[in-house]
Amino acid sequence: MESKRPLIFVTNDDGIEAKGIHSLIEMVKPFGDVVTVAPFRVHSGKSHAITVEIPIRYRLVREWENVKVYGCTGTPVDSVKLAFSAILPRKPDLIVSGINHGSNASVSVVYSGTMGAVIEGCINGIPSVGFSLLDFDPDADFTASVHYGQKIIQHVLEDGLPETTCLNVNIPRGPLEQVKGIRVCRQAKGVWREEFERRLDPRKGEYFWLTGYFVNHENGATDTDEYALSNKYLSVVPIKVDFTNYNALESLKRIQHG
Amino acid sequence: MESKRPLIFVTNDDGIEAKGIHSLIEMVKPFGDVVTVAPFRVHSGKSHAITVEIPIRYRLVREWENVKVYGCTGTPVDSVKLAFSAILPRKPDLIVSGINHGSNASVSVVYSGTMGAVIEGCINGIPSVGFSLLDFDPDADFTASVHYGQKIIQHVLEDGLPETTCLNVNIPRGPLEQVKGIRVCRQAKGVWREEFERRLDPRKGEYFWLTGYFVNHENGATDTDEYALSNKYLSVVPIKVDFTNYNALESLKRIQHG
Question: Per the domain annotation, does A196 fall within a domain?
Answer without folding.
Answer: no
